[in-house]
Design a protein that fits this description.
4 copies of one chain form a homotetramer.
Chain A (H helix, E strand, L loop, with lengths): L6 H20 L10 H4 L24 H29 L6 H36 L18 H18 L4 E4 L2 E5 L15 E5 L2 E4 L5 H9 L11 H9 L8 E4 L2 E6 L2 E4 L11 H10 L7 H10 L21 H5 L21 E7 L25 E4 L16 E3 L8 E2 L3 E2 L2
Parallel strand pairs in A: 8-11
Antiparallel strand pairs in A: 1-4, 2-3, 4-12, 5-6, 6-7, 8-9, 9-10
Chain lengths: 429, 429, 429, 429
């Protein structure tokens, strides 16, 4: 897949970021361990020179993985030395606040934050890229066998799936969360780190709307397939229908239909489809067609953020993250087990807004009113892509928990499927 | 160009619309003069069967143009007979309001309106498709010599251009129209015809903003070119920069640089570029890059419609339409000549909002809140394309004046350039 | 189809040839009626400047057909005036053989011959290009209804087909013509016109071989299809199998399988497949796969020419040419009716070597030993294409009879199917 | 490059060959260590099921290299056990010649030979595939530093190049070897192993011809470049000129023009171009264009084999092979140093026919008269590709010396450049 990169490239590229934006900035006479890595591991910052073409990254058998690890170590050590030096200078800074070091520290701070966030993003991409590469391999290699569901066997899986399906029905008794809309504020506020695309915080006028309490399950999505969803153009956007036909799609990425049974490829290998798990690896087009077929729609990102910001302290709003090392969204029956002792629902809000699967919104990825990209190479990071992409919210099982914010905007083209992307429905009242 | 169609196809397709949605609906036993035209001249209504592939339309040397005219005449006559019959039945209807004919008349009415609007759209496309086809021909054929500017010769053109450039500067003395924003309403209201995508009328919250009083001229856009605008990635969206490089763009479609002079191909042939005319045949990407380079942005469609609806009765808001048969946007010095006798500006609002050039907005083409496409084939008309397209507003020199409304939403992919599309800047205060 | 051109282009291009190589050569101050035609109607002579791209020829709606006819008339008249002048000068020439006019006449003579041959080639291409364009049209337009088989109706066609099949069986009682090989001469000799690629005449060593007495019929080819020929890779060259899969081929071009019946599109319209007619519009790949499936092979061009040159005076060696205006190869029962009165076969040689269908040979198109292309633009005519093409021999129903020679080498890429190309088998004894 | 494969794939595929054609044949109940390797490491034998697509081989990060080595070891051991068993059975065979083992041994013998030859071919491809992969890497990694020319430094290289150029001139004093042609025999004879495409031995009629005594050097090819060879269509076949333009070619693969100096990437890294070395990594198109520009042509494979078979015992006919582990063709001055003590030339025949570079011939790759591919999967090996490829002769610096025969036919498409392919000219007397 042209969008994916080999792991060694991710490892070197995230180090390249610190080398380029920290070491080269602080040390005018900085000499890289290997000047050509500057070219090889640049990604898209065209203001820093033409990057090495992404689809050819797979060809780079050199530097070896060992050489990349050495490069990481060298840069890490140099960055740490620089930090110590700045820290010492910083102590001086209190006596001389306008010193050169003081200003350097200030401007570095946000670069550092960006570099760390950037590395977390690539950690997520490493998981999704490995999953895709392994999925192309008829051997269906297992990335992490320990992440398999406990006690999971094929037979158990089928039983669990049937049970899960019932479970999913149980938790969807009152499927909609109601919101009365109005003028609400979205976007990042405060001093903590956020990407430029989460700024500025601004007001939005919302009509009253409904948001589904849970994300769509495999079992629910399977009903769409069995009703001929992939064979009928009327559910689909024109551009989506073209993708369905050109790529001969008949289900989510990684679903395998074999001998009359549905299987799913996961980072724990190929295994029976669990009907109670959230559907994932669907494109915006699939999410939109599914919603249309159900007579619903996808939420706007303002609707999503407005609701999510109200339930941010509710434990039931959280599913699984990368920190849990389970590498696959968890069945909703598990969430249901969060029920209080008396059987009452644990929350009156939506469940699992954060984690498990990125939730496609109906919102094209655009700058917020008054948005201006930062100048320079860092400015290429987000604003350049505000065209023909759609926003996803909420993070996934491959996202680091402390990487996410309620204002966090992920974005991908509408046909992208290799992220852990799922569906939460919305509707007009 | 895969998007364009031959003229004979436009002629037959607009007739096919009436045959399919009027005659076949009213006459259960309707027999077409040629059943295969049903397949050939369907455009995208996939619920009516697979259409004949658009890029292959150019191959259809049969039916001949004469046969297509005969087909038009046959269908037109049948439709008129049907209208007369319904009119007579309609007189009965007053006595029997619930009659079958009464209901038929009602449902037909909107189909008829759609059919007529549909034909006007194709009239515009015929002009832009002819222009594109002629532009591929090194002979640069002239479509309508009578539409050339009066007294226009090459030498005069250059003088006029220089003068025009001064003129353009003159009218932009106070370039911005200010609006304080707030909660405003956009979208169509009332009983008159409108496309489904203009519905429902709804409220939008606008921040204060500025809208340019005039559209961008060739002279202004030339400054972007001469400043290296097409050679510098930083002004462009990533997707736009890819188009610039792949298609080796260096100026608007139809601009020709020859022997150190800029020429422009028009429906009156190839002629010197007039610097005072509105720039046209630019893509969304070009409009966006130009705006970014000027430190501005494109208006949202809500901003545009909110302003335009306030100046709808002002004569200076109107430029040239297809009714004027001039086939090219007119120089702003002509608009400036609308100045009142005492030299005071004719309007305190923006000039030329309607006509001359379609104005790209920053708004992706989406359904309005609460939008639901009509069911059936007519429903495929607009809603299917709400993805990866951008809205244009205001009509062009190729649009029929009575086809346009202030709520009218045109839409094209961001790289489309063969429509008469131009730029009006916006900015934050 | 990128290889095909519109009729108006053929008309203008053949005139362009005379304008470029006759008028411009003889008249140093020649002024074309339209200088840009020089660019538009050049085909591939890159030494004369970049030609207008072939796939875009279909876009040229100007010059109109009427303008092209006027151009033809103007050039024809100028050429005729030039010929008369040369003829008069030629009378002087007997008194002064080394005169400039004498030399001009001599060099012109071969250009003239080439121009006339070139026009005949384009006459053939006009037929095959019209056939292809009409075949893309679901109306299946009829080019020449008078060319339909006499008394042909659908029912009669089926009967004829069945009878034809028997007929075909009858004439193939002794299917092989035997040749003992040896050192033979092929290539053109003598003063008459021939293309450069037929030169020089040279010796070739042939092993003993067999050549089929008749070309393969539709009925015989249908057996290949029904035996799963298009579904089994083992009969095919690797490159051919890729074409079969990419283009989803299941039979010759223009065969249509509808409601359980095989039809064939011809220049007289769509009609039932006649099993006794020669199979045509097959590619080299199909011819080769068919031969392999039969346990045979295709003849080399040396084998073909050696046999054909021995039977050049035999009437039964000739089928239908363009002069017969029938536009489709004729059923072999017609050839069989050439039987002598006593029922003895009309010939002991192969039947129908010339006309009806071009016969694919196993020979890649290469220069003969000692071949050197002529210098200049004319030299680009044949030699440039001696790569990845295969030779066909014998002319077709679309070839002018006096265009063909026994040494004539036609050539097309191995996947080309839109010529009237068929199959004659060969084998080792 | 879609034609290249990763090294681990080569390693596994050559083992797969023995597993498939030896172990599975001999042991009806054979169980592979991993059944899916059968799919992964099949190359093109479509009769054994659809192979894993070649361009996706690079995606296979599993099995790991270690797993592939284990697979090789397992299969090698199983094959050796089988050989011992057969050998023991073979001793019985003398007493019972018609035994099942006897027949198995016989049929196995040719499979074994094929498997070993097949592995040698892949050893050559591993070198050329590694070279290509490394060349895509801006780091220009070195495969084998020990293979660099002795004492080679940049400065020394330039001096050597200049000297070499003179040396090259010296040995080309009498550049042509003359042959009188006639009826000659080519193709393999005798009991020793040969590929099916070298059979049957047969007679060919040759005109008198000249063959260059040496292959073309870098210095000679540079003259073609400097004379504008890559900018002038007239030297090129039409298909070759298209490749030049599409791929913007300006010299052989691996030549790098930097700061006014020509460098060449080799398996010993990037280094100054040595003008005395044979030009290599040119396509058929480049070889043909060069020959045309020199007023010469390429030899036919019959001409080449006829000459080579006469000089097979002459030491000067041999250059460098893989056995020499030098990985780059050697400068002709080295060959010149083979001169006899008295300064007389070491040979009156052509030099370096075998080894150093594969020599493109003018011959399309076809079956010899009477050629029939073997049946079954082995039969797919050669015959399937007899279309649009050209024959190369003589082996290269990457070929094992005992892999080559004077009748050996290598073949590649005319645009292939990543093999060690060079040029030897021929001409008519």
């Amino acid at each position: 897949m042209p969008e994916a990169s080999p792991i060694r490239w991710h490892l070197a590229h995230t180090t390249w970021f610190f080398e380029t934006f920290v070491l080269r900035e602080l040390q005018p006479d900085y000499r890289s361990p290997n000047e050509q890595f500057h070219y090889l591991f640049n990604s898209y910052y065209t203001t820093l020179g033409d990057p090495f073409p992404r689809p050819r990254r797979g060809l780079l058998s050199r530097p070896t993985v060992a050489e990349v690890w050495r490069y990481r170590q060298q840069v890490d050590e140099a960055v740490e030395r620089e930090l110590q030096r700045l820290q010492q200078d910083g102590e001086l800074q209190h006596r001389s606040p306008a010193s050169r070091e003081s200003r350097a520290w200030e401007s570095l701070s946000s670069v550092f934050q960006t570099g760390l966030q950037h590395e977390q993003q690539h950690q997520e991409l490493m998981l999704t890229d490995i999953k895709h590469a392994f999925s192309c391999n008829p051997l269906y290699p297992t990335f992490d066998p320990s992440s398999a569901r406990p006690g999971q066997t094929a037979a158990a899986g089928n039983r669990a799936a049937a049970a899960g399906n019932r479970g999913a029905a149980a938790v969807s008794d009152e499927p909609w969360y109601e919101d009365s809309g109005g003028i609400v504020s979205i976007g990042h506020a405060g001093e903590a780190f956020a990407y430029d695309n989460e700024l500025p915080r601004h007001s939005v006028l919302l009509q009253p709307f409904r948001l589904a309490r849970t994300v769509v399950t495999n079992g629910q999505f399977l009903e769409f397939i069995e009703a001929g969803g992939y064979a009928c153009s009327e559910h689909w956007l024109d551009a989506g229908w073209q993708v369905v036909q050109q790529q001969k799609l008949s289900g989510p990425l990684y679903w395998v239909h074999r001998d009359g049974q549905w299987l799913e490829f996961t980072l724990a290998g190929l295994r029976p489809l669990d009907l109670a798990e959230p559907v994932c690896h669907v494109s915006f087009f699939e999410a939109d067609a599914y919603a249309r077929w159900r007579g619903c729609r996808l939420p706007s990102e303002a609707e999503w953020e407005h609701v999510a910001s109200q339930w941010i302290d509710e434990p039931a709003s959280y599913g699984t993250f990368a920190d849990d090392r389970r590498w696959h969204p968890q069945a909703l029956r598990d969430v249901a087990s969060l029920q209080a002792g008396d059987g009452s629902p644990v929350t009156t809000g939506p469940r699992g807004l954060f984690g498990d699967v990125w939730e496609w919104t109906a919102s094209p990825y655009l700058g917020y009113p008054g948005y201006r990209p930062p100048s320079g190479a860092i400015g290429e990071y987000n604003g350049k892509f505000m065209c023909n992409q759609f926003v996803l919210r909420g993070g996934s099982v491959a996202t680091s928990r402390d990487h996410l914010r309620v204002t966090y905007r992920n974005f991908f083209p509408p046909d992208a499927r290799w992220q852990f992307s799922g569906i939460r429905l919305a509707a007009d009242p």
